[in-house]
Design a protein that fits this description.
Length: 786
């Protein structure tokens, strides 16, 4: 009976995402039509939005989807933060993380996606990440808009005693076609919202789209440029106080003791209200001591005055250079027992042994900080039986979970208000700083307390992109065709660390972690990608390139490190793309082939990838002489192609070298020609902005990125010693958006990052003959232009 019920449940479509488990709370002058749409008596449309705006333009893109179906102008849609509810869970991110190759169209994959989608409709974390916002809400928001439109039309038809089909919607007005009578949305909103939801609302067909596909301007641009936009750091509440923290100098640790004299002196400092000692939060990060004062400046000065003895914790003595050596040692041929094969096709060892020519190279990528412009901050108000949070977070339900746990409250008693975020890049998917803020704020019940870290603390107590070392080998036959590919990487695993931290905040995460392991074991005998669930995040971009390799293997050896790791823009793709595309370029050179033509030959069955590669190459003038730099220096071009988050991106970088200085020749990137296939291009303007952003972000990482850890301490702290890309270093970026066979949007925020570094490195190799295999890219001073 149980089996029959399970099969029957599995055959049903996923449950609707229009109405939440709890109706939206009443608001004066507005009326909720479903869990996504409110219409006001003043005709304003309010989009109840679960996604965090971090500069990626998601509020504009999502508003376009709703406005398209509702029949209103884009500027009529206003964003309201969503409460925590299962209908707002990010189903797309979880489904896309399943262990299948991108081009797998098997029945097993389709069934798995369907079943996991159904489960995640009830349990997916409420996240903004994985370049998934538009993809995840492509149908829910359009259905919400179409449902509200039909309800408004039905109410107007009832008032006029006409058929619903005779009522049209345009520019936020309801019109009776025959008589010309009109009604404003606000005139009928209250009665229309009380009508039952339509069962199967028809969506506006693509041929009739007014907004989708148009390069419309960002709706938040004016407020941000004029300083009116409210970020987490801008929260100001009546009676608010401010907290600063003293954290250990190392990555980990806790307070061992506080000097009593310094503590008494700090209590007497102007504005100081409380000193709060806290242990390492369960959501990650070190322990420390906070000072609450009347202003941020007073709190920071008081925190600096505390004399604290620290217990260094697990990372004490950690050295990043030594870790990189350990990772490299894990790649030795006789140390493969711990390697996990994410891809194993054909007979790689036999093909390499029989190859006419073989090449080999080792690539390295460092630990990376996020360097968001708005430092970590959160404001918490603790009351007797409730708590309220204001924070720039990518994970409001995780924030709700940790605050509820540390304060001993039921989750529904914790309200999370998501503010605008001054950058995220994955850092705000962690909620350690929110748990920390709650631990501090409970010392002053009834008083809102804002925690703000310094720039140095933000850099030195981050959750870093894992470092990685990879050894790649390739074999060629007598005709110099690539016949064998072997990719062996080593470094810390990401998924277990993230799961452990998330498990402290949301009950479903331990279940998801267990389910991943079960799925890995279940799918292995069925011929699916074996065991990617071990940690797909660490290997993505390495096991799933689209190239047709007859014999291919990708393995990853986990190496433990006491460095906290977390999500970073494009996650594993960020370094695996550098390894894979850098070595593919070396293969092209070894084969005596043009890098574009070499890739095309390996993409015979990948028309999307070929089209993207061809468009970028054509835009850059590939095959023609590279023009000189503005100062007359010779230039060269490099190309890279990478697919991630459902999109395919090709970049061609045009570079030159500055004269030798301080032991190196500085790389100058003058132009980047980009092409992307991202499915339905909802707003080409946003896509171009995100591609430009990805180029700048990726170039900053390629030229300046990487933290250096000595004795367990990150040595950089500020932008002066871990710089961001400056305006004179920024290249011209030309973006080509291709029409796509994919019938929905795919990711845009992250896919442009992975191909940037390999494109630049390949251009340097074409210019000098020097192959750069370590990030950040450094050209030796004696390198000569070929």
């Amino acid at each position: 009976m149980a089996g029959g019920l399970a099969i029957g449940w599995g055959l049903l479509p996923p449950r609707q995402r229009l109405v939440g488990s709890t109706p939206l709370p009443p608001q004066a002058g507005t009326h909720a039509f479903n869990g996504w749409v409110r219409v006001g008596d003043d005709d304003r449309v309010h989009l109840v939005c679960p996604k965090t705006e971090m500069g990626q333009g998601v509020h504009t893109g999502l508003a376009m989807l709703l406005a398209e179906e509702l029949g209103v102008a884009l500027d009529r849609v206003h964003i309201a933060a969503a409460p925590v509810d299962a209908i707002y869970g990010n189903v797309a991110t979880v489904v896309d993380s399943l262990p299948f190759l991108p081009d797998d169209e098997s029945v097993l994959r389709r069934v798995s996606h369907h079943l996991v989608g159904k489960i995640m409709r009830e349990a997916a974390p409420m996240l903004t990440g994985g370049s998934s916002s538009l993809k995840d809400l492509w149908l829910p928001l359009r259905l919400a808009g179409a449902s509200a439109r039909l309800m408004l039309q039905a109410e107007a038809a009832a008032r006029w005693a006409v058929a619903e089909a005779d009522v049209s919607v345009a520019d936020g007005q309801l019109r009776h076609t025959a008589s010309g009578r009109t009604l404003r949305f606000g005139e009928v909103a209250a009665a229309a919202a009380a009508r039952p939801l339509p069962e199967a609302p028809a969506l506006v067909p693509p041929a009739q789209w007014r907004l989708i596909g148009r390069p419309l301007p960002r709706q938040d641009a004016a407020a941000k440029s004029q300083g009116r936009a409210g970020f987490g750091i801008d929260v100001r509440l009546p009676g608010q106080k401010y907290a600063a923290v003293a954290l250990p100098p190392g990555l980990t640790g806790r307070v061992a003791a506080i000097d009593a004299a310094s503590e008494q002196a700090v209590k007497a400092m102007p504005g100081v209200r409380a000193i709060v000692r806290f242990d390492p939060p369960a959501a990650g990060g070190p322990g420390g001591v906070a000072v609450i004062a009347a202003s941020t400046w007073q709190a920071q000065q008081a925190a600096k005055a505390l004399v604290v003895q620290w217990d260094g914790g697990a990372a004490q003595g950690t050295d990043s250079a030594a870790l990189m050596q350990r990772f490299g040692q894990a790649l030795a041929p006789d140390t493969t027992d711990d390697a996990f094969a994410y891809l194993d096709r054909g007979d790689v060892d036999g093909a390499l042994a029989g190859a006419a020519t073989r090449i080999e190279a080792t690539y390295e990528a460092p630990f990376m900080a996020h360097q968001v412009l708005e430092p970590v901050n959160a404001t918490v108000l603790v009351q007797a039986d409730s708590a309220t949070v204001w924070a720039p977070t990518q994970a409001p339900d995780l924030a709700q979970g940790v605050v509820a746990r540390v304060l001993g409250l039921p989750k529904p008693q914790v309200t999370v208000n998501v503010t605008l975020a001054g950058g995220g890049f994955g850092r705000r998917l962690d909620v350690d700083y929110i748990e920390q803020a709650a631990l501090i704020a409970r010392a002053l019940p009834g008083v809102p307390v804002q925690l703000l870290w310094t720039r140095a603390q933000d850099t030195q107590h981050d959750f870093y992109r894992p470092a990685c070392v990879a050894r790649l080998r390739a074999g060629f036959d007598a005709e110099r065709r690539l016949v064998a590919w072997d990719h062996h990487a080593a470094g810390p695993l990401l998924a277990p660390a993230v799961m452990q931290r998330y498990g402290s905040a949301i009950d479903v995460v331990p279940v998801l972690a267990a389910g991943q392991g079960l799925m890995a074991r279940a799918l292995r005998p069925l011929g699916a990608l074996p065991g990617v669930a071990l940690d797909k995040l660490s290997a993505e971009g390495g096991f799933d390139p689209a190239y047709a390799w007859p014999h291919a293997r990708m393995r990853h050896t986990p190496v433990e490190a006491a460095v906290p790791v977390g999500f970073w823009r494009s996650v594993g793709h960020s370094h695996m793309g550098f390894f894979t595309e850098g070595f593919i370029d070396e293969c092209a050179v070894a084969a005596g082939a043009d890098p574009v033509a070499f890739r095309r030959a390996l993409l015979a069955e990948q028309p999307r990838h070929r089209a993207v590669l061809d468009r970028a190459a054509a835009a850059a003038g590939w095959g023609t002489p590279s023009p000189p730099a503005p100062d007359g220096a010779p230039t060269a071009r490099g190309v890279a192609l990478h697919a991630s988050f459902g999109s395919v991106v090709a970049l061609v970088a045009t570079v030159s070298l500055a004269p030798a200085s301080a032991g190196e020749r500085r790389i100058r990137v003058h132009r980047v020609d980009a092409a992307i296939d991202c499915g339905v291009a909802v707003n080409p303007n946003l896509i171009r902005q995100q591609m430009e952003s990805a180029v700048v972000f990726g170039l900053n990482a390629a030229l300046h990125g990487g933290v250096r850890i000595e004795r367990g301490q990150v040595q950089q702290g500020h932008f002066m010693d871990l710089p961001l890309l400056r305006l004179p270093e920024a290249p011209v970026v030309q973006v080509e958006i291709l029409p796509s066979p994919v019938p929905h949007p795919e990711g845009v925020g992250e896919p442009g990052v992975p191909p940037l570094a390999p494109a630049v490195a390949s251009a340097v190799a074409a210019l000098t003959g020097v192959r750069l295999r370590r990030l950040p890219l450094v050209v030796p001073a004696d390198a000569k232009v070929a």
